[in-house]
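User: I'm designing a mutation panel for Acyl-CoA desaturase and want to avoid disrupting the core. Could you give me a predicted structure to guide residue selection? Please restate the sequence first so the numbering is unambiguous.

Assistant: Good idea. Sequence first, for numbering, then the predicted C-alpha cells:
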Amino acid sequence: MPRMTSSTLPALDGLGPLRPTRAKASDFPPIAKAYTRVSEVVRESGLLRRAPVFYAFTGAMILLALGGAVTGFVLLGDSWFQLLIAAATGLIFTQIAFLAHEAAHRQILKLGPANDRLARILAGSIGMSYSWWDSKHSRHHSNPNRVGKDPDIEVDTISFIEEDAAQATGLRRLLTRKQGWLFFPLLTLEGLNLHFHSLRHLLSREPVKGRWTELSIIAARFVLCYAPVFLFLPLGMAFAFIGVQLAVFGVYMGASFAPNHKGMPVIAHDAKLDFFTKQVRTSRNIRGGWWATILMGGLNYQVEHHLFPSMARPHLAKAREIVREHCRTLDVPYTETSLFRSYAIVIDYLNRVGLAARDPFECPITAQDCLLYPPDAAGGIPSRGDPSSGDRPRLVARARVEYLGKVVYVVRGVRGRGDFRASGE
C-alpha cells in the first residue's frame, strides 16, 4: 500500500479535509476552573466528611467473615470442602485490600499518619507491601493512562499499548496475540504476582520506608495463614488450598481494578490536559448501585474516586450525580457501563492491542505522514482494516479521544512517537 502524506490524505465524511499535525496545547482547550467549581459543590454538600460508622461496621463484618472462615476450617478438618474455605478467604482478603486502599487515600481516619499506619497493617495482613503499592498507585492517580508515567499500563505479562505488544518476543508474543482471552485466566496468578513484587521491593537494596515493619507483618501473616494449613491438611490438599486462595484473590482483585481504565483513551506522554479532563476521560464507572459498591469496594465510582481520592465510600454515589451534571454542562463525556459490558470492552481492547504481536512491522509514521481513519460504526476505535484487501492501516498504536465535540486520534509510532489529530465538529 503506498504511503500517504499530507497532500494525499483524503477528506472523510463528517470530518472535512484532514491535515496531520503534532498535537499542541491549543488542541486541548483548558477548562482549569472545572475542577474548582465541582469541588466547591462537593465540599458544600458535605461529601468530603469522614464516615467512621460505615468503616467500623465494614471492618466488623470482615472480621466476622474471617472468624467464620477459621471456624469452618477447624470444623471441616481433612475434607476437600476446605477448598470452599480457601475461596472464601480469597474473597475476604480482597475486601481487606479495599480497606487498605481507602486508608491509603486518607478516607478512614482523620489524620494522615494514622491512615498510613492502618494501610500498612492491612496491606501486610494480606501479604502486600504498602510502600511498594502506594508509590505505584500514587503515580497512577497523577497520570492515569498516560504513556511512560502510569505504571498500570506498563508491560508485564500483558501489553496495554501496541508499542509494547509489537516488541514482544518468544513466549510473551504468543501470549500477547490472544491476551484479551487470556486476561482473566492469567489473573489466577495475580495474587502470587502481588506477593512477589512486594517481597522483591522490600528485599531490594533501595531505601524503603517501614521496611522492617512491613516484613514483620508479612512474615507473621504467612505463618498464621499457612502453618495451620500444612499442619492440619494432607500435603496435596494443603497446596490445593493455597492455590485456590491465591487464584480467587488474584481474580477478584484484577476483576475489580481492570474495568476502571482499561480500554479508555491512552494519553500521549507529552499531551497537556487539565486535572479534571484527564481524570474523567480516562476513567470508567460501573453501574449497579449499592451491590456494586460492596462488590468492588467503591471502585465502581472510579470517576469520582479519581477526582476526590479522599472521599469516603458512602459518599461516592451522591458525588456521582454532581459530577455527571457538571460533565453534561461542560460537554465532557462521562463513561459508565455495566460490569459485564466493561469486561467485554477490556477483552476486546487487549485483543486489539495484541494484534501488533501477530504481524509486527516497521511503522512508517513520522511527523509528516500518517493514515487517519474516522470512528467505526459503533463510535469506537477503528479496526485495523482488512488484511486480505491490503487495506490495513499502517499504524502500530492509536487511541480515540473526543474533546469538546471533536474527534482526536493520538497516534504513536514504534520509532519516535509522533502525535497526529483528525478533528471535525
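For picking mutation sites, this is relevant: The beta strands are 285-286, 336-337, 397-403, 406-412. The chain has one domain: 47-359.
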